[in-house]
Design goal:
By secondary structure, the protein is an alpha/beta fold. It has one domain: Alpha-Beta Complex (Spore Coat Polysaccharide Biosynthesis Protein SpsA, Chain A), CATH 3.90.550.
C-alpha cells in the first residue's frame, strides 16, 4: 500500500473490484493451490489491505523489514505444509491462470525443481510473471543470503545460480517480452483498467489470448 509511484495500489479498483482481488481470484483458479497467504509488512499503511485479504479468507503474514523478501516468504510459508510454492507479485493483476497452471504442474511433476518460472527466458509479457519455488530453496535463501540486495531479490538469486538450484524455464513460441503489463504507475493503472473494463465479467476470467485480441495484437 506504500507504493511511492502509485499509493494504495493494492486496493485501487479494476472493474469495480480491488486490484488484489483479481490476483487472488486468478490464483484460486489454479489446480493444486491449497492455500493463499498474503505476505506483507508491519507497515500500518497495509492494515486496510490485510483486512480485505482476511475478509477473502486468506492467511496473512507480516514481516518487519520492507525489502527482506526472503524472510517474508519464508515466514509466510513456515506454518503450513507443502513443498511447492507459487509466488506472484502485487503488481500483476493480469496473471493468466493457464500460465500459472503450467508452472505449478511442472513443480508437482518434478520434485527436484527449485525455480520454475516464465522469467528465466522471457517470452511472456511482463506482468504475467510468476515463480514456482521449492520449499527447500526458499529456506536456503532465508538462511544463507545476507546482503540487502540478495535478500530482496532472492528469487532472482535462485534463478541466476543454476549450478546450485534446478532451474526450469516456462516459455511460449512467440516472444512477447517487449510488452509490459505490470501496474507500477497511474498510467499503468489506466491502461490495465481499460482492459478489465472491457473484458472482465463476473464469475469469469479472461487470459492472455483475450487480452491480446482486445489490444489488437497477434496471439501466441
Amino acid at each position: 500500500m506504500g507504493s511511492s509511484r502509485l499509493p494504495g495500489k493494492a486496493l485501487l479498483p479494476l472493474a469495480g473490484k480491488p486490484l488484489v482481488w483479481h490476483i487472488i481470484d486468478r490464483m484460486r483458479r489454479v489446480r493444486g493451490v491449497e492455500r493463499i497467504v498474503l505476505a506483507t509488512t508491519t507497515d500500518p499503511r497495509n492494515d486496510s489491505m490485510i483486512d480485505f485479504a482476511r475478509s477473502e479468507g486468506l492467511e496473512v503474514f507480516r514481516h518487519p523489514v520492507e525489502d527482506d523478501i526472503a524472510g517474508r516468504i519464508a515466514g509466510a510459508i513456515a506454518p503450513y505444509p507443502g513443498d511447492v510454492v507459487l509466488k506472484t507479485g502485487g503488481d500483476c493483476p493480469l496473471i493468466d491462470p493457464a500460465v500459472l497452471q503450467r508452472m505449478v504442474d511442472a513443480g508437482l511433476n518434478d520434485p527436484a525443481a527449485d525455480f520454475i518460472s516464465n522469467r528465466v527466458i522471457w517470452t511472456y509479457p511482463q506482468g504475467l510473471s510468476a515463480d514456482v519455488l521449492s520449499r527447500r530453496a526458499i529456506f536456503w535463501a532465508d538462511e544463507n543470503l545476507h546482503t540487502e540486495q540478495d535478500r530482496e531479490l532472492f528469487a532472482t538469486y535462485l534463478r541466476d545460480h543454476p549450478d546450485q538450484f534446478k532451474v526450469v524455464p516456462i516459455t511460449q513460441a512467440k516472444n512477447m517480452s517487449h510488452l509490459n503489463w505490470c501496474v507500477d504507475t497511474p498510467e499503468d493503472m489506466a491502461f490495465v483498467g481499460g482492459i478489465f473494463d472491457a473484458l472482465y465479467r463476473e464469475g469469469e476470467c479472461f487470459g492472455l489470448a483475450e487480452t491480446l485480441a482486445f489490444l489488437g495484437l497477434p496471439g501466441a
